[in-house]
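User: Last request for today: this protein with adenosine-5'-triphosphate, please.
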Amino acid sequence: MSDLPAALHVRSLHKTFGSTAVLDGIDLHVEQGSVFALLGANGAGKSTTVRILTTLLPFDSGTVEVTGLALPAHARDVRERIALTGQYAAIDDVLTCAENLRLAARLAHLPSATIADRVRELIERFDLGHVVDRRAGALSGGTARRLDIAMSLIAAPQLLFLDEPTTGLDPRSRLVMWEVIRELAADGVTVFLTTQYLEEADRLADRVAVLDAGRIVAEGTPDELKALVPGGHLELRFGTEPDLDRAAAILGGDSDRVTLTLEVPTDGDLPHVAALLNRLADEAVPVEKFGLHSPTLDDVFLTLTGTTDRKKVSQ
Ligand SMILES: Nc1ncnc2c1ncn2[C@@H]1O[C@H](COP(=O)(O)OP(=O)(O)OP(=O)(O)O)[C@@H](O)[C@H]1O
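Assistant: Here's the final one, the structure of the complex with adenosine-5'-triphosphate:
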């Protein structure tokens, strides 16, 4: 753990709406300069968490420190150090891209002498040059999201909150956004993002917390989380039941007589997989098809939350 104050430190955070406990005592710790993903299905409490951490919503009890400053006492100072890009862009549709950026700069009280340079820098960095004079309302979803992030970075925040940054984007725009987030992290900005997409958390985050019904049910690096679920396996399919039975006798594993498949545990290491296949070849057992299955965050999510609605948690 670094000597720097944590970007975020949350202990036993509770939030109730009416009689519903939306956050039921969550703990979070985010190191400076890291990318942290809060993963959860619809309604898990992700946006509520972000709204509390960004000073927009009061909480009932617990400790919340953002960039080393306690909330709610230091809300004003915290707001100067953070930025938030929500699911719904804070862009003014009738203004052009450049005008939106200049407006954001004035709202952030940037000295007027520095505004033009800062706007130019962000236009270049976020590849907005070709749309700079276009009305923001006419931008594609992905470009609007890039403009939104550019606007939120105008005052160089220490900590950037991205609430579901790629929800609703097509796969290509999602890849562009992932690249943008990686570059921010490489520049030292701490990124706290929420997502419903396991692949997004896997690809981007140094650490991931899984939020389910207002509780953190797991936290760790993507690899640590994957280690929580049963390991990978080699799936072998055979043409006949006798072949399946012979293979099962040789290799062990779980066989399924309906699909004529055998699942044999493996860590996915090439020599191990090759050795398994060679044993069947040595005994002249014909394999029709085979495939390797490694544990994914999908498996973690399904195991931990019991959710079977895969649409919600992966795409
Ligand atoms: N102002 C409010 N009053 C009452 N209930 C609320 C309020 N805001 C959120 N909730 C409830 O709190 C729960 C968590 O909502 P939240 O928006 O934090 O979830 P989420 O994980 O961000 O979901 P999504 O992915 O759909 O945005 C939901 O059941 C929601 O209906």
